[in-house]
Protein backbone atom coordinates (compact mmCIF):
# COMPACT_ATOMS: atom_id res chain seq x y z
CA UNK A 1 0.00 0.00 0.00
CA UNK A 2 2.82 2.38 0.90
CA UNK A 3 4.74 1.31 -2.22
CA UNK A 4 1.61 1.96 -4.33
CA UNK A 5 1.12 5.40 -2.78
CA UNK A 6 4.74 6.28 -3.43
CA UNK A 7 4.38 5.18 -7.04
CA UNK A 8 1.29 7.32 -7.49
CA UNK A 9 3.06 10.28 -5.88
CA UNK A 10 6.01 9.86 -8.23
CA UNK A 11 3.66 9.78 -11.21
CA UNK A 12 2.01 13.03 -10.10
CA UNK A 13 5.38 14.63 -9.46
CA UNK A 14 6.59 13.58 -12.92
CA UNK A 15 3.40 14.90 -14.54
CA UNK A 16 3.79 18.19 -12.70
CA UNK A 17 7.39 18.47 -13.84
CA UNK A 18 6.43 17.72 -17.43
CA UNK A 19 3.58 20.26 -17.20
CA UNK A 20 5.97 22.88 -15.83
CA UNK A 21 8.48 22.18 -18.61
CA UNK A 22 5.73 22.41 -21.21
CA UNK A 23 4.58 25.76 -19.79
CA UNK A 24 8.12 27.10 -19.91
CA UNK A 25 8.50 25.89 -23.48
CA UNK A 26 5.26 27.56 -24.57
CA UNK A 27 6.23 30.77 -22.78
CA UNK A 28 9.65 30.79 -24.42
CA UNK A 29 8.11 30.35 -27.86
CA UNK A 30 5.54 33.07 -27.13
CA UNK A 31 8.22 35.53 -25.96
CA UNK A 32 10.40 34.82 -28.99
CA UNK A 33 7.49 35.25 -31.41
CA UNK A 34 6.39 38.47 -29.70
CA UNK A 35 9.90 39.92 -29.91
CA UNK A 36 9.81 39.29 -33.68
CA UNK A 37 6.39 41.00 -33.93
CA UNK A 38 4.81 37.69 -34.99
CA UNK A 39 1.59 38.66 -33.28
CA UNK A 40 -0.64 35.92 -34.66
CA UNK A 41 1.70 33.18 -33.44
CA UNK A 42 2.49 34.87 -30.14
CA UNK A 43 -1.19 35.56 -29.47
CA UNK A 44 -2.11 31.90 -29.91
CA UNK A 45 0.68 30.83 -27.52
CA UNK A 46 -0.17 33.43 -24.86
CA UNK A 47 -3.82 32.43 -25.18
CA UNK A 48 -2.85 28.83 -24.48
CA UNK A 49 -1.00 29.94 -21.37
CA UNK A 50 -3.92 32.10 -20.23
CA UNK A 51 -6.38 29.21 -20.51
CA UNK A 52 -4.18 26.95 -18.44
CA UNK A 53 -2.85 29.43 -15.87
CA UNK A 54 -5.60 32.03 -15.56
CA UNK A 55 -4.74 34.77 -13.07
CA UNK A 56 -1.54 32.96 -12.19
CA UNK A 57 -0.16 34.22 -15.49
CA UNK A 58 1.80 37.44 -14.86
CA UNK A 59 0.10 40.66 -15.89
CA UNK A 60 2.83 41.58 -18.39
CA UNK A 61 2.02 38.39 -20.31
CA UNK A 62 -1.66 39.32 -20.28
CA UNK A 63 -0.70 42.73 -21.70
CA UNK A 64 1.21 41.07 -24.52
CA UNK A 65 -1.73 38.77 -25.21
CA UNK A 66 -4.08 41.74 -25.51
CA UNK A 67 -1.70 43.63 -27.76
CA UNK A 68 -1.33 40.61 -30.07
CA UNK A 69 -5.09 40.60 -30.64
CA UNK A 70 -5.13 44.36 -31.11
CA UNK A 71 -2.29 44.27 -33.65
CA UNK A 72 -4.06 41.60 -35.71
CA UNK A 73 -7.32 43.57 -35.86
CA UNK A 74 -9.26 41.57 -33.26
CA UNK A 75 -10.34 44.67 -31.35
CA UNK A 76 -13.28 43.10 -29.49
CA UNK A 77 -11.14 40.29 -28.08
CA UNK A 78 -8.37 42.76 -27.22
CA UNK A 79 -10.82 44.96 -25.31
CA UNK A 80 -11.99 41.93 -23.34
CA UNK A 81 -8.44 41.09 -22.31
CA UNK A 82 -7.70 44.70 -21.29
CA UNK A 83 -10.88 44.75 -19.23
CA UNK A 84 -9.66 41.65 -17.39
CA UNK A 85 -6.23 43.22 -16.88
CA UNK A 86 -7.51 46.41 -15.22
CA UNK A 87 -9.63 44.29 -12.84
CA UNK A 88 -6.38 42.90 -11.41
CA UNK A 89 -4.80 44.82 -8.52
CA UNK A 90 -1.36 44.59 -10.13
CA UNK A 91 -2.37 46.09 -13.49
CA UNK A 92 -0.01 48.68 -15.02
CA UNK A 93 -1.21 52.25 -15.63
CA UNK A 94 -0.52 51.77 -19.35
CA UNK A 95 -3.42 49.30 -19.46
CA UNK A 96 -5.92 52.17 -19.20
CA UNK A 97 -4.58 53.83 -22.35
CA UNK A 98 -4.37 50.54 -24.26
CA UNK A 99 -7.94 49.66 -23.21
CA UNK A 100 -9.09 53.12 -24.32
CA UNK A 101 -7.47 52.58 -27.73
CA UNK A 102 -9.25 49.25 -28.17
CA UNK A 103 -12.60 50.78 -27.19
CA UNK A 104 -12.06 53.67 -29.61
CA UNK A 105 -11.37 51.17 -32.37
CA UNK A 106 -14.75 49.67 -31.51
CA UNK A 107 -16.19 53.22 -31.72
CA UNK A 108 -17.22 53.12 -28.03
CA UNK A 109 -16.02 56.67 -27.48
CA UNK A 110 -17.65 57.45 -24.12
CA UNK A 111 -16.18 54.31 -22.55
CA UNK A 112 -12.81 55.04 -24.18
CA UNK A 113 -12.81 58.55 -22.67
CA UNK A 114 -13.25 57.07 -19.18
CA UNK A 115 -10.16 54.88 -19.63
CA UNK A 116 -8.06 57.72 -21.06
CA UNK A 117 -8.92 59.87 -18.05
CA UNK A 118 -7.68 57.10 -15.72
CA UNK A 119 -4.33 57.02 -17.53
CA UNK A 120 -1.74 59.16 -15.71
CA UNK A 121 1.82 59.70 -16.89
CA UNK A 122 4.70 62.16 -16.68
CA UNK A 123 6.20 61.11 -20.01
CA UNK A 124 5.92 64.00 -22.51
CA UNK A 125 5.04 61.81 -25.48
CA UNK A 126 2.39 59.94 -23.48
CA UNK A 127 0.89 63.20 -22.25
CA UNK A 128 0.59 64.35 -25.86
CA UNK A 129 -0.99 61.07 -26.96
CA UNK A 130 -3.50 61.24 -24.10
CA UNK A 131 -4.51 64.78 -25.09
CA UNK A 132 -4.97 63.69 -28.70
CA UNK A 133 -7.01 60.66 -27.61
CA UNK A 134 -9.37 62.77 -25.46
CA UNK A 135 -9.76 65.28 -28.29
CA UNK A 136 -10.61 62.37 -30.58
CA UNK A 137 -13.41 61.23 -28.30
CA UNK A 138 -14.78 64.78 -28.08
CA UNK A 139 -14.78 65.17 -31.87
CA UNK A 140 -16.09 61.71 -32.72
CA UNK A 141 -19.77 62.63 -32.68
CA UNK A 142 -19.44 65.27 -35.38
CA UNK A 143 -16.80 63.44 -37.41
CA UNK A 144 -18.84 60.26 -37.69
CA UNK A 145 -21.70 62.14 -39.33
CA UNK A 146 -21.04 61.69 -43.04
CA UNK A 147 -22.27 64.46 -45.33
CA UNK A 148 -23.81 61.82 -47.59
CA UNK A 149 -22.20 63.39 -50.64
CA UNK A 150 -19.29 60.99 -50.77
CA UNK A 151 -20.21 57.39 -51.46
CA UNK A 152 -18.00 54.56 -50.18
CA UNK A 153 -18.52 50.94 -51.15
CA UNK A 154 -16.44 47.75 -51.00
CA UNK A 155 -14.98 46.52 -54.29
CA UNK A 156 -16.24 42.97 -54.03
CA UNK A 157 -14.42 41.71 -57.12
CA UNK A 158 -11.06 42.79 -55.65
CA UNK A 159 -11.46 41.83 -51.98
CA UNK A 160 -10.37 38.48 -50.58
CA UNK A 161 -10.33 36.87 -47.11
CA UNK A 162 -6.77 38.22 -46.84
CA UNK A 163 -5.45 41.79 -46.92
CA UNK A 164 -5.94 43.86 -50.09
CA UNK A 165 -4.85 47.43 -50.89
CA UNK A 166 -4.59 49.72 -53.92
CA UNK A 167 -1.10 51.21 -54.22
CA UNK A 168 -1.45 53.30 -57.38
CA UNK A 169 -3.19 54.11 -60.64
CA UNK A 170 -1.43 53.41 -63.94
CA UNK A 171 -2.40 53.49 -67.59
CA UNK A 172 -3.48 49.85 -67.54
CA UNK A 173 -5.56 50.14 -64.40
CA UNK A 174 -4.83 49.74 -60.68
CA UNK A 175 -1.70 48.61 -58.88
CA UNK A 176 -2.63 46.31 -56.00
CA UNK A 177 -0.88 44.56 -53.14
CA UNK A 178 -2.60 41.53 -51.66
CA UNK A 179 -2.09 38.52 -49.44
CA UNK A 180 -5.21 36.84 -50.79
CA UNK A 181 -4.55 36.44 -54.52
CA UNK A 182 -1.60 34.08 -54.03
CA UNK A 183 -4.00 31.14 -53.78
CA UNK A 184 -5.86 32.04 -57.01
CA UNK A 185 -3.30 30.57 -59.45
CA UNK A 186 -2.26 34.08 -60.47
CA UNK A 187 1.41 33.72 -59.65
CA UNK A 188 4.47 32.45 -61.42
CA UNK A 189 5.60 29.06 -60.19
CA UNK A 190 3.78 26.72 -57.85
CA UNK A 191 2.26 28.31 -54.76
CA UNK A 192 -0.11 25.70 -53.45
CA UNK A 193 1.40 26.42 -50.03
CA UNK A 194 2.66 30.04 -50.15
CA UNK A 195 5.05 31.33 -47.50
CA UNK A 196 3.23 32.66 -44.44
CA UNK A 197 3.88 35.82 -42.44
CA UNK A 198 3.95 34.82 -38.78
CA UNK A 199 2.77 38.29 -37.80
CA UNK A 200 -0.68 37.67 -39.30
CA UNK A 201 -0.65 33.98 -40.29
CA UNK A 202 -1.44 35.12 -43.84
CA UNK A 203 0.66 34.78 -46.99
CA UNK A 204 3.08 37.60 -47.71
CA UNK A 205 1.99 40.51 -49.89
CA UNK A 206 2.57 40.36 -53.62
CA UNK A 207 2.02 43.01 -56.27
CA UNK A 208 -0.69 42.82 -58.95
CA UNK A 209 -2.30 44.93 -61.65
CA UNK A 210 -6.04 45.12 -62.21
CA UNK A 211 -6.65 46.26 -65.78
CA UNK A 212 -10.31 47.27 -65.48
CA UNK A 213 -11.04 49.71 -62.67
CA UNK A 214 -14.54 50.99 -63.49
CA UNK A 215 -17.17 49.73 -61.09
CA UNK A 216 -20.03 47.74 -62.49
CA UNK A 217 -17.98 45.70 -64.93
CA UNK A 218 -17.77 42.04 -63.99
CA UNK A 219 -14.98 41.25 -66.48
CA UNK A 220 -12.11 41.33 -64.01
CA UNK A 221 -8.63 41.18 -65.48
CA UNK A 222 -6.22 40.62 -62.63
CA UNK A 223 -2.63 39.48 -63.04
CA UNK A 224 0.64 39.44 -61.15
CA UNK A 225 2.70 42.59 -61.72
CA UNK A 226 5.94 41.92 -63.59
CA UNK A 227 6.35 38.33 -62.35
CA UNK A 228 9.80 38.03 -63.94
CA UNK A 229 10.99 40.99 -61.85
CA UNK A 230 8.93 40.81 -58.65
CA UNK A 231 7.51 37.29 -58.56
CA UNK A 232 10.52 35.37 -57.29
CA UNK A 233 10.72 36.89 -53.81
CA UNK A 234 9.09 35.07 -50.93
CA UNK A 235 8.46 37.94 -48.54
CA UNK A 236 6.41 41.14 -48.68
CA UNK A 237 6.37 43.00 -52.00
CA UNK A 238 4.56 46.32 -52.07
CA UNK A 239 3.53 48.95 -52.30
CA UNK A 240 4.85 49.55 -55.83
CA UNK A 241 5.08 52.98 -57.45
CA UNK A 242 5.71 53.88 -61.12
CA UNK A 243 6.74 57.25 -62.53
CA UNK A 244 4.53 59.07 -65.06
CA UNK A 245 6.21 57.50 -68.08
CA UNK A 246 6.05 54.09 -66.37
CA UNK A 247 9.67 53.24 -67.10
CA UNK A 248 10.95 53.50 -63.50
CA UNK A 249 9.62 51.37 -60.68
CA UNK A 250 10.00 51.76 -56.91
CA UNK A 251 9.08 48.72 -54.81
CA UNK A 252 8.98 48.17 -51.07
CA UNK A 253 10.34 44.72 -50.24
CA UNK A 254 10.64 42.94 -46.89
CA UNK A 255 14.14 41.50 -47.18
CA UNK A 256 14.06 39.53 -43.88
CA UNK A 257 17.73 40.32 -43.26
CA UNK A 258 18.87 38.94 -46.62
CA UNK A 259 19.91 40.78 -49.80
CA UNK A 260 17.14 40.76 -52.37
CA UNK A 261 19.37 39.19 -55.01
CA UNK A 262 19.93 36.00 -53.03
CA UNK A 263 18.41 32.74 -54.21
CA UNK A 264 18.03 31.58 -50.62
CA UNK A 265 14.73 31.96 -48.85
CA UNK A 266 16.59 33.44 -45.89
CA UNK A 267 15.82 32.78 -42.23
CA UNK A 268 12.42 31.45 -41.27
CA UNK A 269 12.08 34.39 -38.95
CA UNK A 270 13.93 37.66 -38.67
CA UNK A 271 13.78 41.40 -38.27
CA UNK A 272 10.88 42.99 -40.14
CA UNK A 273 13.01 45.34 -42.22
CA UNK A 274 11.64 47.06 -45.32
CA UNK A 275 13.73 48.65 -48.03
CA UNK A 276 13.01 50.48 -51.27
CA UNK A 277 14.27 49.01 -54.53
CA UNK A 278 14.36 50.47 -58.00
CA UNK A 279 14.21 49.10 -61.52
CA UNK A 280 14.50 51.03 -64.80
CA UNK A 281 13.09 49.84 -68.12
CA UNK A 282 15.41 50.23 -71.09
CA UNK A 283 14.70 49.01 -74.62
CA UNK A 284 11.50 47.40 -73.35
CA UNK A 285 13.22 45.33 -70.63
CA UNK A 286 13.26 45.89 -66.89
CA UNK A 287 16.69 45.90 -65.24
CA UNK A 288 17.18 43.79 -62.09
CA UNK A 289 16.06 45.39 -58.84
CA UNK A 290 18.69 47.37 -56.96
CA UNK A 291 18.59 49.21 -53.64
CA UNK A 292 17.52 52.80 -54.31
CA UNK A 293 20.79 54.72 -53.84
CA UNK A 294 20.89 57.34 -51.11
CA UNK A 295 17.47 56.50 -49.65
CA UNK A 296 17.87 53.34 -47.56
CA UNK A 297 19.69 53.28 -44.21
CA UNK A 298 21.24 50.06 -42.91
CA UNK A 299 19.44 48.69 -39.87
CA UNK A 300 16.26 50.75 -40.40
CA UNK A 301 13.20 50.45 -42.58
CA UNK A 302 12.40 52.58 -45.63
CA UNK A 303 9.11 51.96 -47.41
CA UNK A 304 5.96 53.29 -49.13
CA UNK A 305 7.75 55.33 -51.83
CA UNK A 306 5.58 57.70 -53.90
CA UNK A 307 6.31 60.52 -56.35
CA UNK A 308 4.78 63.95 -56.66
CA UNK A 309 2.95 64.77 -59.91
CA UNK A 310 6.04 65.74 -61.92
CA UNK A 311 8.38 63.16 -60.37
CA UNK A 312 10.74 65.72 -58.83
CA UNK A 313 10.13 64.73 -55.18
CA UNK A 314 10.08 61.25 -53.67
CA UNK A 315 8.14 60.79 -50.41
CA UNK A 316 8.61 57.69 -48.27
CA UNK A 317 8.21 56.29 -44.74
CA UNK A 318 11.09 55.45 -42.41
CA UNK A 319 11.93 54.78 -38.75
CA UNK A 320 15.51 56.06 -39.16
CA UNK A 321 17.21 58.32 -36.61
CA UNK A 322 16.24 61.97 -36.78
CA UNK A 323 12.51 61.30 -36.90
CA UNK A 324 9.83 62.56 -34.54
CA UNK A 325 8.01 59.32 -33.80
CA UNK A 326 7.72 55.63 -34.55
CA UNK A 327 7.68 56.07 -38.34
CA UNK A 328 7.85 59.42 -40.16
CA UNK A 329 7.29 60.64 -43.70
CA UNK A 330 10.49 61.83 -45.38
CA UNK A 331 11.27 63.29 -48.80
CA UNK A 332 14.16 63.53 -51.23
CA UNK A 333 14.54 65.79 -54.26
CA UNK A 334 15.69 64.60 -57.67
CA UNK A 335 19.06 66.03 -58.66
CA UNK A 336 20.19 67.25 -62.06
CA UNK A 337 21.97 63.94 -62.72
CA UNK A 338 18.81 61.93 -61.96
CA UNK A 339 19.90 60.72 -58.51
CA UNK A 340 18.03 61.49 -55.29
CA UNK A 341 19.31 64.02 -52.77
CA UNK A 342 19.77 63.55 -49.05
CA UNK A 343 16.45 62.58 -47.38
CA UNK A 344 14.80 65.29 -45.27
CA UNK A 345 12.08 64.86 -42.65
CA UNK A 346 8.74 66.40 -43.67
CA UNK A 347 8.60 68.14 -40.30
CA UNK A 348 6.39 68.44 -37.25
CA UNK A 349 3.37 69.68 -39.23
CA UNK A 350 3.10 66.17 -40.73
CA UNK A 351 4.92 63.81 -38.38
CA UNK A 352 3.97 63.05 -34.77
CA UNK A 353 5.27 61.01 -31.85
CA UNK A 354 3.17 58.10 -33.18
CA UNK A 355 3.29 56.49 -36.65
CA UNK A 356 2.66 57.94 -40.11
CA UNK A 357 2.29 55.59 -43.09
CA UNK A 358 1.05 55.31 -46.70
CA UNK A 359 1.69 58.77 -48.16
CA UNK A 360 0.24 59.64 -51.58
CA UNK A 361 0.30 62.91 -53.50
CA UNK A 362 -2.46 63.93 -55.92
CA UNK A 363 -2.22 66.00 -59.11
CA UNK A 364 -2.64 69.25 -57.15
CA UNK A 365 0.16 68.38 -54.74
CA UNK A 366 -2.06 67.55 -51.76
CA UNK A 367 -0.50 64.96 -49.45
CA UNK A 368 -2.73 62.17 -48.16
CA UNK A 369 -1.42 59.92 -45.40
CA UNK A 370 -2.51 57.81 -42.43
CA UNK A 371 -1.53 58.50 -38.82
CA UNK A 372 -2.20 57.48 -35.24
CA UNK A 373 -0.77 60.70 -33.85
CA UNK A 374 -3.59 63.16 -34.57
CA UNK A 375 -7.14 63.34 -33.29
CA UNK A 376 -9.09 60.64 -35.10
CA UNK A 377 -11.87 58.11 -34.93
CA UNK A 378 -9.58 55.23 -33.97
CA UNK A 379 -6.62 53.24 -35.29
CA UNK A 380 -5.05 54.82 -38.35
CA UNK A 381 -7.06 57.73 -39.76
CA UNK A 382 -6.55 59.34 -43.16
CA UNK A 383 -5.47 63.00 -43.30
CA UNK A 384 -4.69 65.48 -46.06
CA UNK A 385 -2.42 68.51 -46.07
CA UNK A 386 -1.52 71.20 -48.58
CA UNK A 387 2.11 72.13 -49.15
CA UNK A 388 5.24 70.31 -50.18
CA UNK A 389 8.56 69.00 -48.88
CA UNK A 390 8.96 70.36 -45.32
CA UNK A 391 6.40 73.19 -45.56
CA UNK A 392 2.82 72.14 -44.87
CA UNK A 393 -0.47 73.47 -43.63
CA UNK A 394 -2.08 71.74 -40.63
CA UNK A 395 -3.34 68.29 -41.69
CA UNK A 396 -7.11 67.85 -41.91
CA UNK A 397 -8.87 64.70 -40.74
CA UNK A 398 -11.02 63.45 -43.63
CA UNK A 399 -13.70 62.20 -41.19
CA UNK A 400 -16.43 59.72 -42.16
CA UNK A 401 -16.92 57.91 -44.44
CA UNK A 402 -13.18 57.87 -45.18
CA UNK A 403 -12.34 57.15 -41.53
CA UNK A 404 -13.78 54.77 -38.96
CA UNK A 405 -12.74 53.32 -35.63
CA UNK A 406 -10.53 50.79 -37.40
CA UNK A 407 -7.37 51.26 -39.48
CA UNK A 408 -8.08 53.35 -42.60
CA UNK A 409 -5.18 53.89 -44.97
CA UNK A 410 -3.77 53.93 -48.46
CA UNK A 411 -6.05 56.55 -50.01
CA UNK A 412 -5.40 56.74 -53.76
CA UNK A 413 -7.06 59.33 -56.03
CA UNK A 414 -7.53 58.87 -59.73
CA UNK A 415 -6.34 61.74 -61.89
CA UNK A 416 -9.87 63.07 -62.32
CA UNK A 417 -9.88 64.02 -58.63
CA UNK A 418 -13.35 62.70 -57.74
CA UNK A 419 -12.82 58.92 -57.72
CA UNK A 420 -10.46 56.90 -55.60
CA UNK A 421 -9.78 53.96 -53.34
CA UNK A 422 -8.75 53.27 -49.77
CA UNK A 423 -8.26 50.24 -47.54
CA UNK A 424 -9.77 49.52 -44.14
CA UNK A 425 -10.10 46.66 -41.68
CA UNK A 426 -13.43 48.02 -40.44
CA UNK A 427 -16.10 45.59 -39.32
CA UNK A 428 -18.25 44.01 -42.01
CA UNK A 429 -15.46 43.48 -44.52
CA UNK A 430 -14.55 40.30 -46.34
CA UNK A 431 -10.96 40.10 -45.08
CA UNK A 432 -8.45 41.71 -42.77
CA UNK A 433 -8.06 44.77 -45.05
CA UNK A 434 -10.62 45.46 -47.76
CA UNK A 435 -10.51 47.84 -50.73
CA UNK A 436 -13.23 50.50 -50.84
CA UNK A 437 -14.12 52.64 -53.83
CA UNK A 438 -15.39 56.18 -53.37
CA UNK A 439 -16.79 58.86 -55.60
CA UNK A 440 -17.94 62.38 -55.00
CA UNK A 441 -20.89 63.20 -57.33
CA UNK A 442 -20.87 66.75 -55.97
CA UNK A 443 -17.22 67.31 -56.89
CA UNK A 444 -16.92 70.83 -58.29
CA UNK A 445 -13.25 71.75 -58.14
CA UNK A 446 -12.85 70.98 -61.84
CA UNK A 447 -16.28 70.22 -63.30
CA UNK A 448 -19.61 71.99 -62.80
CA UNK A 449 -23.23 70.99 -63.27
CA UNK A 450 -24.74 72.29 -66.48
CA UNK A 451 -25.76 75.97 -66.30
CA UNK A 452 -29.46 76.63 -66.09
CA UNK A 453 -29.41 78.38 -69.46
CA UNK A 454 -27.45 75.70 -71.26
CA UNK A 455 -30.28 75.14 -73.68
CA UNK A 456 -30.61 78.81 -74.67
CA UNK A 457 -28.33 81.09 -76.63
CA UNK A 458 -25.86 83.16 -74.66
CA UNK A 459 -26.59 86.87 -74.91
CA UNK A 460 -24.29 89.78 -74.22
CA UNK A 461 -24.87 93.48 -73.68
CA UNK A 462 -24.19 96.17 -71.08
CA UNK A 463 -26.79 97.17 -68.56
CA UNK A 464 -27.61 100.82 -67.91
CA UNK A 465 -29.94 102.50 -65.53
CA UNK A 466 -33.67 102.21 -66.24
CA UNK A 467 -34.95 99.66 -68.69
CA UNK A 468 -32.66 96.95 -69.99
CA UNK A 469 -31.67 97.38 -73.61
CA UNK A 470 -32.65 94.61 -76.00
CA UNK A 471 -30.35 91.58 -75.75
CA UNK A 472 -27.74 91.37 -78.46
CA UNK A 473 -27.69 87.82 -79.75
CA UNK A 474 -24.28 86.58 -80.79
CA UNK A 475 -24.20 85.40 -84.39
CA UNK A 476 -22.49 82.21 -85.52
CA UNK A 477 -20.97 81.14 -88.80
CA UNK A 478 -22.45 78.47 -90.99
CA UNK A 479 -19.50 76.23 -90.13
CA UNK A 480 -20.22 76.63 -86.40
CA UNK A 481 -23.89 75.88 -86.92
CA UNK A 482 -23.05 72.77 -88.93
CA UNK A 483 -20.47 71.53 -86.39
CA UNK A 484 -22.93 72.08 -83.55
CA UNK A 485 -25.71 70.20 -85.34
CA UNK A 486 -23.49 67.23 -86.15
CA UNK A 487 -22.00 67.10 -82.66
CA UNK A 488 -25.37 67.11 -80.92
CA UNK A 489 -26.53 64.19 -83.07
CA UNK A 490 -23.71 62.00 -81.76
CA UNK A 491 -24.10 59.59 -78.86
CA UNK A 492 -22.35 56.55 -77.45
CA UNK A 493 -23.59 53.61 -75.37
CA UNK A 494 -22.45 51.56 -72.37
CA UNK A 495 -22.49 47.97 -71.28
CA UNK A 496 -24.99 47.12 -68.55
CA UNK A 497 -24.15 48.60 -65.14
CA UNK A 498 -20.80 49.89 -66.44
CA UNK A 499 -19.08 53.25 -66.76
CA UNK A 500 -16.25 51.97 -68.98
CA UNK A 501 -15.73 53.78 -72.28
CA UNK A 502 -15.89 51.46 -75.29
CA UNK A 503 -13.85 51.87 -78.48
CA UNK A 504 -16.77 53.57 -80.23
CA UNK A 505 -17.19 55.89 -77.23
CA UNK A 506 -13.63 57.13 -77.58
CA UNK A 507 -14.16 57.82 -81.30
CA UNK A 508 -17.14 60.03 -80.46
CA UNK A 509 -15.19 61.87 -77.75
CA UNK A 510 -12.29 62.33 -80.17
CA UNK A 511 -14.74 64.11 -82.48
CA UNK A 512 -15.97 66.26 -79.57
CA UNK A 513 -12.38 67.21 -78.70
CA UNK A 514 -11.66 68.08 -82.34
CA UNK A 515 -14.68 70.40 -82.53
CA UNK A 516 -13.73 72.08 -79.22
CA UNK A 517 -10.21 72.75 -80.55
CA UNK A 518 -11.63 74.24 -83.75
CA UNK A 519 -13.98 76.44 -81.71
CA UNK A 520 -12.05 77.54 -78.59
CA UNK A 521 -14.98 79.60 -77.23
CA UNK A 522 -17.30 76.59 -77.09
CA UNK A 523 -18.38 75.00 -73.83
CA UNK A 524 -19.80 71.50 -73.74
CA UNK A 525 -22.36 69.79 -71.50
CA UNK A 526 -21.87 66.03 -71.15
CA UNK A 527 -25.33 64.49 -70.66
CA UNK A 528 -25.49 60.86 -69.51
CA UNK A 529 -28.32 58.41 -68.85
CA UNK A 530 -29.00 54.95 -67.39
CA UNK A 531 -31.59 52.33 -68.23
CA UNK A 532 -34.58 51.71 -65.96
CA UNK A 533 -33.21 48.65 -64.15
CA UNK A 534 -32.19 49.27 -60.54
CA UNK A 535 -33.14 51.94 -57.97
CA UNK A 536 -33.67 55.50 -59.22
CA UNK A 537 -30.94 57.02 -57.05
CA UNK A 538 -28.45 54.34 -58.04
CA UNK A 539 -29.07 55.08 -61.72
CA UNK A 540 -28.75 58.82 -61.13
CA UNK A 541 -25.36 58.23 -59.51
CA UNK A 542 -24.36 55.77 -62.24
CA UNK A 543 -25.12 58.34 -64.92
CA UNK A 544 -22.97 60.86 -63.00
CA UNK A 545 -20.06 58.43 -63.10
CA UNK A 546 -20.58 58.08 -66.86
CA UNK A 547 -20.35 61.85 -67.16
CA UNK A 548 -17.13 61.82 -65.16
CA UNK A 549 -15.63 59.05 -67.31
CA UNK A 550 -16.26 61.10 -70.47
CA UNK A 551 -14.89 64.30 -68.92
CA UNK A 552 -11.88 62.40 -67.58
CA UNK A 553 -11.08 61.20 -71.11
CA UNK A 554 -11.43 64.67 -72.64
CA UNK A 555 -9.23 66.27 -69.97
CA UNK A 556 -6.51 63.66 -69.51
CA UNK A 557 -6.37 62.14 -72.99
CA UNK A 558 -7.31 65.04 -75.27
CA UNK A 559 -6.05 68.05 -73.30
CA UNK A 560 -9.37 69.90 -73.05
CA UNK A 561 -9.53 72.62 -70.39
CA UNK A 562 -11.87 71.30 -67.66
CA UNK A 563 -13.33 74.80 -67.20
CA UNK A 564 -15.04 74.35 -70.58
CA UNK A 565 -16.78 71.13 -69.51
CA UNK A 566 -20.08 70.69 -67.68
CA UNK A 567 -22.21 67.69 -66.93
CA UNK A 568 -25.85 66.70 -66.49
CA UNK A 569 -26.62 63.28 -65.03
CA UNK A 570 -30.17 62.35 -66.00
CA UNK A 571 -30.43 58.83 -64.59
CA UNK A 572 -33.53 57.08 -65.95
CA UNK A 573 -35.05 60.28 -67.35
CA UNK A 574 -35.82 60.86 -71.03
CA UNK A 575 -35.67 57.29 -72.41
CA UNK A 576 -35.45 57.13 -76.20
CA UNK A 577 -38.08 54.36 -76.23
CA UNK A 578 -40.81 53.02 -73.97
CA UNK A 579 -38.45 51.25 -71.55
CA UNK A 580 -39.59 52.61 -68.20
CA UNK A 581 -40.04 51.03 -64.76
CA UNK A 582 -42.26 47.99 -64.93
CA UNK A 583 -42.13 47.67 -68.72
CA UNK A 584 -40.55 44.47 -70.09
CA UNK A 585 -37.90 45.34 -72.68
CA UNK A 586 -35.32 43.64 -74.84
CA UNK A 587 -31.64 44.00 -74.04
CA UNK A 588 -31.23 46.15 -77.15
CA UNK A 589 -33.94 48.53 -75.96
CA UNK A 590 -32.25 48.84 -72.58
CA UNK A 591 -28.91 49.46 -74.27
CA UNK A 592 -30.21 52.40 -76.30
CA UNK A 593 -31.08 54.21 -73.06
CA UNK A 594 -27.58 53.72 -71.56
CA UNK A 595 -26.10 56.64 -73.44
CA UNK A 596 -24.10 59.85 -73.36
CA UNK A 597 -24.77 62.85 -75.57
CA UNK A 598 -23.35 66.36 -75.76
CA UNK A 599 -24.89 69.81 -75.87
CA UNK A 600 -23.01 72.87 -77.10
CA UNK A 601 -23.27 76.09 -75.09
CA UNK A 602 -22.91 79.11 -77.35
TrEMBL record:
InterPro entries, A to Z: Bact_OuterMem_StrucFunc, OMP_bac, OmpA-like, OmpA-like_sf, TPR-like_helical_dom_sf, WD40
Keyword annotations: Cell outer membrane, Membrane, Signal
Domain OmpA-like: 481-602
UniProt-annotated location(s): Cell outer membrane
UniProt signal peptide: 1-19
Pfam families linked to this entry: OmpA, PD40
Record flagged with keyword Ion transport: no
The keyword Nucleotide-binding is annotated on this UniProt entry: no
This protein's GO CC annotations: cell outer membrane
Protein's name in the database: OmpA family protein
Protein species of origin: Chitinophaga agrisoli
Higher taxonomy: Bacteria, Pseudomonadati, Bacteroidota, Chitinophagia, Chitinophagales
